[in-house]
Amino acid sequence: MQQNASLLPTSEGLHVEFKTSFNEDVIETLVAFANAKGGTVYIGIADNGEVKGINIGKETIQNWVNEVKIKTATQIIPDAEMYIVDNKTVVMLSTMEFPIKPVSTRGRYYKRIGSANHLLSVVEISDLYMQTMQNSWDSYIYQGAHIKDLDTAKIEKFILKVNQVKRFLLPQHPVEALRKLNLIQHDVPTNGAMILFSKQNLRYNVHIGRFKTPSLIIADKLINGNLFDVLEESMQTIVGHLKFAFEITGKTTQRTEIPEYPLEAIRELLVNALVHRDYQSPTDIQIRIYDNSISFFNPSGLYGNITVEDLKTDSYQASTRNKLIAEAFYLTNEIEKYGSGFIRIRNAIADYPTMKFEYSDLGHGFLTQFSYTEQKISTYPLTVETTVETTVETTVETILNLIKQNPKITQTELMNKLSLTRRGVEWQMKSLKNKGLIVRMGAARGAGGYWKVIDN
Length: 456
Prior knowledge:
Layout: E1 16-19, H1 24-34, E2 39-43, H2 60-70, E3 72-73, E4 79-85, E5 88-95, E6 104-105, E7 108-113, E8 116-119, H3 122-132, H4 152-165, H5 174-180, E9 184-185, E10 188-189, H6 191-197, E11 206-213, E12 216-223, H7 227-240, E13 244-249, E14 254-259, H8 263-276, E15 285-289, E16 293-298, H9 308-311, H10 323-331, H11 341-348, E17 356-361, E18 366-371, H12 384-405, H13 411-418, H14 422-434, E19 438-441, E20 450-453
Parallel strand pairs: 1-2, 11-15
Antiparallel strand pairs: 2-5, 3-6, 4-5, 6-7, 7-8, 9-10, 11-12, 13-14, 15-16, 16-18, 17-18, 19-20
């Protein structure tokens, strides 16, 4: 029973709590551990790690275990161990992560985040329960909705894209396709179906602002509607406010276009915000663009047991708050792989020497930010106004005209005619496909296929 003090933990953390006595705080901590990844409360140790010891009687530990059991639901029966450390008694009460969550005490629910117990809100309690039951909020039916409330044209466009991507084969009938994806249940659209395809604007807003200073707004736009449309309009709006630079290379003075931030990383953060936001929150997604930084605020904290520290690794396992919405974005190739977004972002900014990628879980939301001290290429920087004209309007119009002239035009030919990089051409073509302005006919690659411009 004798324990060496050097073998005890030296500080509190995700799985460790120190208490000098047994009280209600001990029970709250055990509940928080059970709702997270498990942990141990060391009774008889001060907050600074100093062993104080505790006086106990013959039945003391059993009485503590019984009290924990009585005051928790689902009942926690902690493992109890007693050690003598430097002739002082230390009692350890431990619990594992509970398979059915959430656990409560006195009608309150806690979860361990870092080295503190976090009191869960009603929404967080609901999320934790649905996560345990392998359900998500978007899989529940939308109260008062009917199939006729869904936009058939949007669904047909979605089916076409899914079948072109070939990750899954959907039937051509819109209702049957959504049934196959569980987006319609008992002939009623789910929350996910309405967010993706509702005729009515459900007012899940994306608020984009261009700032000179925190109090000086240059431009402001509120975007809402069907989620796929929101993605494309938001992306175009962001790109329209970015600075671009041109690097002149080669004997033919070929112009290489360098965006202020890697566009695939910007799109990844935007998709992440749309797919993983808390759609029960009235707060908007907020995107702030400054002269040398851009931030994304998503009105929902991290979901499941993942932490900010986990996101810094290349092997984290993410949980999905909105499973049906995430699956829809995966099937249309907007998400490459579940839970790999931050890995791809780090890879994308690797070519930007002074760029920082920072993020933090604020509890009520998740904040991500790109910032830099020097633009990657600044040989010939453009103003915001010139960039909008060049990158959004002129380039799109030029590509559409080139396709009309030569439906079999290749990426290499577009690169030469537009003076863009291959990555730039790929991004523009993907954007046009997502907006329904062009469609690939026949073979995806090679001489057998061609592009078709869709005239509205």
